[in-house]
Amino acid sequence: MGYKAKTGLLAILSLILIAAFLFYDIGPNWEYVLEKRTFKVIAIVLTGAAIAFSTVVFQTITNNRILTPSILGLDSLYLLIQTVVVFIFGSTTLTKMDNNVHFLLTVGLMVLFAGVLYKILFKRNDQNIYFLLLIGLIFGTFFESFSSFMQVLIDPNEFQIVQDKMFASFNNIKTDLLVLASVLILLVSLYFASFVKYLDVLALGRDQAVNLGVDYDYVVKRLLVVVAILISVATALVGPITFLGLLVVNVTYEFLKTYRHTYLIFGSIFIAIIALVGGQLIVERIFTFSTTLSVIINFIGGVYFIYLLLKENKSW
Fold first, then answer.
1. Which of 206, 245, 308, 200 is nearest to 55 (CA)?
2. Least confident stretch, 1-10, 227-236, 304-313
3. 66-75, 146-155, 186-195: which is most confident
């Protein structure tokens, strides 16, 4: 089976799982249930698409299949923003704040941080992307440590509010955020469309891309901005999901066996939808909410990450 047929198969499987999630055991009050499930599915699709899309781009420009965009420190910055708001203004401010304002504030601060980081680091032309990753890792560790410090000082009841923000949740999606998140992802996708033709060449490495006529630094900086915005939108929408991108993108590489990024991006988006919709179906119908989807994904993703490390270690 070729990679085109496999991509079509993934699309069909995604639609089947979405239909099963929407209509399985819908009950007599189907109008109310269907509306709630539709909003949840839209949130899952947007989150899965943003994370899978950004991880494919990020791994291509870094030429590394065990990295995820979370190494830039954006997940840690998200937790720091939530902690600072509770620490300074109290938990009631966080719960009473308008959802759209909170969403735009969080996304804006994360994108601003990424922009300042790029502006400072790429001011000199001799800095490369690996220096950016190192600085992102250091900032991420600093944000986590500072968040932990403030969480120790706040009231235990307010700490519970912060703790709820530390894990991704598809059960408390604010439906009024979906339109805003959809518009942001659509605008970023339109901007990305003019750069998609470079990804197959960038996957060959910096030297080969430069020799083939690609303005490497210009393209990579724009793609990093795309990655930062997508991760910021997904994290602000449901919370941090560390291992989802790593898991779905590596499974896509193994399943499709192709270097064409058009198919890799769509394939990884479909696999992310299958993982999230199928996982949420299992959490709700089999485990009856005794656990959360993010816990299952992080557990499986963590095990798969260790497998990748051991596999790469043997290849050396």
1. 245
2. 304-313
3. 186-195
Determine contact, residues 272/215, Cβ cutoff 8 Å: no
Going from the C-alpha of 10 to that of each of 16, 20, 266, the distances in angstroms are 10, 15, 9
Mention every residue, 6+ apart, whose C-beta is less than 8 A from residue 234. Answer: 46, 47, 50, 51, 54, 241
Residues 6+ apart with CB under 8 A from 253: 65, 264
In this predicted model, which residue has the larger pLDDT, 204 or 26?
Answer: 204
Q: Evaluate whether 261 touches 56 at the Cβ level (below 8 Å).
A: yes
CATH architecture group of domain 3-313 = Orthogonal Bundle (1.10)
pLDDT band at 168 (very low <50, low <70, confident <90, very high): low
Q: Where are the alpha helices (DSSP H) in the chain?
A: 3-23, 30-62, 74-89, 91-96, 99-121, 129-153, 156-165, 177-192, 199-202, 206-211, 216-238, 244-256, 261-285, 293-315
Asked whether 201 and 212 are in contact (CB, 8 A), the reply is yes
